[in-house]
């Protein structure tokens, strides 16, 4: 592999070459000098004023430059500001509930998309974001662009199933202020958006925008939720050709975990206790203690510099700093174990402290060159990206307490009662919960450690204040430094009177990760390693993409596109003997037919895709190879997708889609866990614009998710209780907009999950599950002026 500095020198040489050819680019341009004098900063930015309803005709970050969707040979969905507001969406999860190609798998914006779990797929203004904050907020987000399938040439490694990119709100030349409060049965959330041109410098020279949110309340499950965020941005037009945008985002997010509920005897609805009675486990319970918390502070600071050398040659330089400071103290439920008593069931728990500091630095420099070579019009993008991350991660935890213990582990101080001692399943049919509370040792629990949860009635549990919890032991401490650098080129060129567009790109990316493990051993007998060695893993890969769009008619009523691209995920873990693992790779082939009907009122897309993933990690099943991993090939996903975005009338908007996905391993035939064969989403909004109902709008959102296989495990030997049943989720919204004086007001009510389905699983294994909320409501009051 070439040293990274060599690639930087090559990029500088390339930029110098481009500068020397600027005059030739202008010579072949169809624009004259007078037009060049009025350069507009449009190459990198989409104007939202061109959106009509839910229809956005252009994308900002899919090709890194402002490009009409009809000319992009990919399946792209844009959720714009009007849809975000109508849906009363406050998080990315709210939006992606209406993305037919994806289903949720974690509470931190983890999804299965096109049959593949998302890795490195969440982005902000084109930069990958650290996960672990819950679902990302939308208070300062203008639009969300979704690319289905791999997009590695411009977005880097990962994202085999798709990429989700949030684009922030930039300052505008007009003054406005928007404010809304969302009341719910668990609290309230307030959001504001203030924009102000600073006329002291000429109005259009300096603009300021400020977004923020305050959230206080409880979730449907009774967990605390708190958020304070502020997002100022400052846009300075230095000249007509040069602008610089400064952004900062601060978020303090405090919440509690969503732990899994155990499953026994293959029935997720409840357990059969020792007296032979089947008892339901409540759905609206969080397995946390009142003093538990996940406290996260996040800072994101960005600079975006754009300069036009001419209307044909434009440059952008971006820098983003992201930090995450985590301070988590929480009990955590261990659903791998369960103890059955005569009249209830118990789930073990212990507690932990997880301080963690993460600092990420991202830069990206891109040059866009519009040039014609004969009849072919090129839009060339040359880019260089550099990312660096520092992560300091601690794990303090208490000893385990699993029941069924004997001897010293039962009567001692509890240090030995860790995850090596005790049984995954214990059965005491003659022991009542009252008898257990009087003497936990009767069920084999050590009284010096955290006592278990009561699965059927948490109100009977004794309190577990932090001051009364057992001591913590340092279990793990890792310090990781990661760096990566990439050079990429992407060309979108057209010919045949713009009836044919071709997009082709290539990216070279080099990775390096250095990890220092300051703690080793098996809990609780871990030891410090003051002179811990550094484990270094290096990797480099080249990815390519090519696609073409053919507008079948001059009016672009119908267009056919194809693409073929690839991606990879580097593997930074090593085998027990120190040998490295190959990267996971993914290759996609896709064909789509796009329709633009009724003067653009109806946009539809039909797509077929085939994605093959190789090198998937699995445990080595061979004797004597415990701890080793093998890499499996042949994980394939094929599917048919239909997307619709329509203005049936000026009052009636429809947005939705259907996905038919077959994801399984070619060699074993085993289907991808939690991936539905069928998924359908549809959001309808009808707005009355005359008569007595003028100002009223009614919206109905529906989502159907078909049967899905469990993520199979052999924990506790539980049977496969899948497939998960298919379900419909229905949301209903009634909104009324009215004007008083110069101000516009909005009042709306939203009912989420109208039919109170409490079996919408997003984690589902043989021995545990987690569900989404049942029915809840939101009442919104807003004002714009």
How would you describe this protein?
- With 785 residues, this protein is mainly beta.
- It has a domain at 4-168: TonB-dependent receptor, plug domain (Ferric Hydroxamate Uptake Protein, Chain A, domain 1, Beta Complex).
- 7% of the residues lie in helices and 51% in strands.
- The chain is built from eight helices and 45 strands.
- It has a 22-stranded antiparallel barrel.
- A hairpin with an 8-residue loop joins strand 39 (678-687) and strand 40 (696-705).
- It is globular.
- Fraction of residues in helix: under 10%
CATH topology of the domain at 4-168: Ferric Hydroxamate Uptake Protein, Chain A, domain 1
The CATH superfamily of the domain at 4-168 is identified as TonB-dependent receptor, plug domain
Largest sheet: 22 strands, antiparallel, barrel
Note poorly predicted spans: 1-39
Strand content: over 45%
Q: How many DSSP E strands?
A: 45
Q: How many angstroms separate the termini? A: 57 Å
What does the average pLDDT come to? 91
Number of helices: 8
Radius of gyration from CA coordinates: 28 Å
Question: Which CATH first-tier class of the domain at 4-168 would you pick?
Answer: Mainly Beta
């Amino acid at each position: 592999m070439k040293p990274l500095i060599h690639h930087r020198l090559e990029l500088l040489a390339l930029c110098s070459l481009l500068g020397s050819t600027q005059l030739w680019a202008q010579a072949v341009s169809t624009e004259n000098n007078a037009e060049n004098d009025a350069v507009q900063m449009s190459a990198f930015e989409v104007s939202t004023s061109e959106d009509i309803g839910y229809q956005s005709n252009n994308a900002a970050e899919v090709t890194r430059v402002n490009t009409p969707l009809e000319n992009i040979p990919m399946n792209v969905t844009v959720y714009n500001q009007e849809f975000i507001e109508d849906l009363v969406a406050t998080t990315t999860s709210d939006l992606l509930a209406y993305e037919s190609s994806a289903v949720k798998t974690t509470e931190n914006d983890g999804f299965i998309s096109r049959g593949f779990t998302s890795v490195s797929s969440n982005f902000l203004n084109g930069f990958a974001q650290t996960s672990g904050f819950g679902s990302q907020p939308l208070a300062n987000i203008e639009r969300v662009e979704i690319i289905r399938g791999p997009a590695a040439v411009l977005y880097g490694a990962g994202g085999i199933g798709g990429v989700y990119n949030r684009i922030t709100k930039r300052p505008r030349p007009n003054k406005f202020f928007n404010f809304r409060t969302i009341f719910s049965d668990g609290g309230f959330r307030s959001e504001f958006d203030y924009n102000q041109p600073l006329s002291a410098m000429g109005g259009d020279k300096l603009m300021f925008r400020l977004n923020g949110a305050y959230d206080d309340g409880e979730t449907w499950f009774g967990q605390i939720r708190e958020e304070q965020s502020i997002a100022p941005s400052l846009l300075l037009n230095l000249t007509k050709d040069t602008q610089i945008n400064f952004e900062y985002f601060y978020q303090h997010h405090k919440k509690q975990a969503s732990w899994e509920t155990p499953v026994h005897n293959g029935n997720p609805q409840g357990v059969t206790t020792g007296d032979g009675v089947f008892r339901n486990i409540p759905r609206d319970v969080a397995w946390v203690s009142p003093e538990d918390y996940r406290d996260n502070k996040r800072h994101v600071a960005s600079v975006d510099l754009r300069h036009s050398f001419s209307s044909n040659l434009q440059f952008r330089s971006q820098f983003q700093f992201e930090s995450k400071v985590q301070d988590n103290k929480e009990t955590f439920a261990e659903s791998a174990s369960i103890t059955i008593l005569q009249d209830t069931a118990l789930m073990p728990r212990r507690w932990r402290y997880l301080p963690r500091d993460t600092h990420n630095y991202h830069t990206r420099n891109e040059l866009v060159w519009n040039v014609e070579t004969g009849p072919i019009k090129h839009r060339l993008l040359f880019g260089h990206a550099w990312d660096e991350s520092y992560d300091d991660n601690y794990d303090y935890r208490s000893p385990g307490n699993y029941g069924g213990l004997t001897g010293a582990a039962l009567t001692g101080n509890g240090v030995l009662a860790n995850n090596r001692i005790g049984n995954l399943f214990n059965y005491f049919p003659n022991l009542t919960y009252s008898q257990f509370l009087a003497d936990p040792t009767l069920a084999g629990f050590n009284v010096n450690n955290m006592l278990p949860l009561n699965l059927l009635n948490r109100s009977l549990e004794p309190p577990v204040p932090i001051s009364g919890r057992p001591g913590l032991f340092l279990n793990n401490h890792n310090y990781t430094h990661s760096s990566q650098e990439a050079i990429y080129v992407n060309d979108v060129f057209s010919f045949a009177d713009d009836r044919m567009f071709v997009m082709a790109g290539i990216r070279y990316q080099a990775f390096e990760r250095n990890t220092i493990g300051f703690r080793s051993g098996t809990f609780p007998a871990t030891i410090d390693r003051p002179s811990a060695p550094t484990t270094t893993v290096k990797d480099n890969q080249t990815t390519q993409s090519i696609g073409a769009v053919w507008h079948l008619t001059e009016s672009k009523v119908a267009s056919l596109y194809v693409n073929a691209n690839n991606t990879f995920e580097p593997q930074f873990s090593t085998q027990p003997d120190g040998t490295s693992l190959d990267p996971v790779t993914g290759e996609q082939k896709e064909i789509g037919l796009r329709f633009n009907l009724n003067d653009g009122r109806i946009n539809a897309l039909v797509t077929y895709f085939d994605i093959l993933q190789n090198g998937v990690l699995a445990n080595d099943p061979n004797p004597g190879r415990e701890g080793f991993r093998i890499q499996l090939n042949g994980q394939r996903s094929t599917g048919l997708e239909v997307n619709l975005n329509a203005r049936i009338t000026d009052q009636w908007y429809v947005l939705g889609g259907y996905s038919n996905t077959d994801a399984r391993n070619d060699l074993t035939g085993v289907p991808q866990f939690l991936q539905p064969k069928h998924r359908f989403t549809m959001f309808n909004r009808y707005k009355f614009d005359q008569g007595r109902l003028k100002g009223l709008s009614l919206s109905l959102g529906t989502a159907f998710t078909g049967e899905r296989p469990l993520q199979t495990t052999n924990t506790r030997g539980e049977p496969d209780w899948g497939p998960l049943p298919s379900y419909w989720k229905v949301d209903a919204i009634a909104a009324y907009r009215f004007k008083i004086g110069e101000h516009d007001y909005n009042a709306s009510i939203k009912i989420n999950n109208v039919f109170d389905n409490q079996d919408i699983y997003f984690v589902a294994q043989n021995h545990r599950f987690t569900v989404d909320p049942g029915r809840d409501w939101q009442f919104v009051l807003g004002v714009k002026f």
